[in-house]
Amino acid sequence: MAIIMDGNGRWAVRQGLHRRQGHRHGFGRLPDIIAAGAGLGLSWLSFYCWSTENWNRPVAEQYCVLGLIRRFVREQLPTWQSAGIRFAWAGRRERIGPHLRAELSRAEEATAGNDGLTVCLCVDYGGRVELTNAVREIARESAAGRLDPETSLDEHIQAHLYRPDMPDVDLLIRTSGEQRTSNFLTWQTTYAEMLFPPVLWPDFTPQDLSEAIHTYAERDRRFGALPPIRSTPA
Ligand code: IPE
Ligand code: IPE
Ligand code: MG
């Protein structure tokens, strides 16, 4: 499952607050949602925290959000350890500052052996860049004669994603009512069910999460095939 946490700015403006307060409250929602996800038995929960396009925001907002991510990971690490939660980071390594990079890598290493829910923060993540990198690597391997391009290329693409172990997304939720994916998990969401609840992210509750899962459970997923034939009573 994956969540685009959108609407922090609008939430703040509606309360007469600064946008950074919206981001602060937005990150404040995460521990409850993660605990609820673990309680519901999810295996993988990804959150869109910072996109490759978010660098177009003012520098002050960049510092604010990236600082909140760093603090959040540092503060949550002991909780994740005791709950058996595994932490993963999906995103570009190069542009992120060294302190945040170190914090994210440290959390990944420290929780690598945990076997509960995987919480994946997508930080400096963009689906296009992820796929472009994968294709570049494959081209290099092919040119070096290490890869036959005629064999199962989809497995090679998967192997070069930021987190090759990330399963396909079954359910994608984007809060705030915007109906687009904004460059999120392009490869992984090809058959995802999508929900666009109007609630702004800082107001999103564990109740909203379980309602979304109930809605998902009622969806008819066909993957291009025909719906199962319902047996008629004799
Ligand atoms: C999502 O909230 C958080 C990030 C993109 C970092 P926004 O900041 O996009 O909130 P709105 O869309 O302006 O309300
Ligand atoms: C997507 O939200 C990125 C994150 C939630 C981190 P944006 O608010 O940045 O996306 P657009 O600009 O509305 O598409
Ligand atoms: Mg937004």
Can you count the helices?
A: 7
What compounds sit in this structure? 3-methylbut-3-enyl trihydrogen diphosphate, magnesium ion
Shape field? globular
Oligomer: single chain
Provide the spatial order of strands within the biggest beta sheet.
3-4-2-1-5-6
Query: Whole-number radius of gyration?
Result: 19 Å
Please, what is the average pLDDT?
96
Query: How many β-strands, per DSSP?
Result: 6
How would you sum up the major sheet?
6 strands, parallel
- Between the first and last Cα atoms, what is the distance in angstroms? 39 Å
H and E order: EHHEHEHEHHEEH
Estimate the strand proportion: 5-15%
Poorly predicted residue ranges: none
Percent of residues in helices comes to: 40-55%
Structural class, from helix and strand content?
alpha/beta
Task: Tell me briefly what this model is.
This protein has helices at 8-14, 19-39, 59-83, 98-111, 127-143, 153-159, 206-217; strands spanning 2-4, 44-51, 86-90, 118-125, 171-174, 193-195. 44% of the residues lie in helices and 13% in strands.
Overall description:
With 234 residues, this protein is α/β, with parallel strands linked by helices. Helix content is 44%, strand content 13%. The protein has helices at 8-14, 19-39, 59-83, 98-111, 127-143, 153-159, 206-217; strands spanning 2-4, 44-51, 86-90, 118-125, 171-174, 193-195. The structure holds 3-methylbut-3-enyl trihydrogen diphosphate (2 copies) and magnesium ion. One 3-methylbut-3-enyl trihydrogen diphosphate binds at residues 4-6, 48-51, 54, 178, 180, 182.
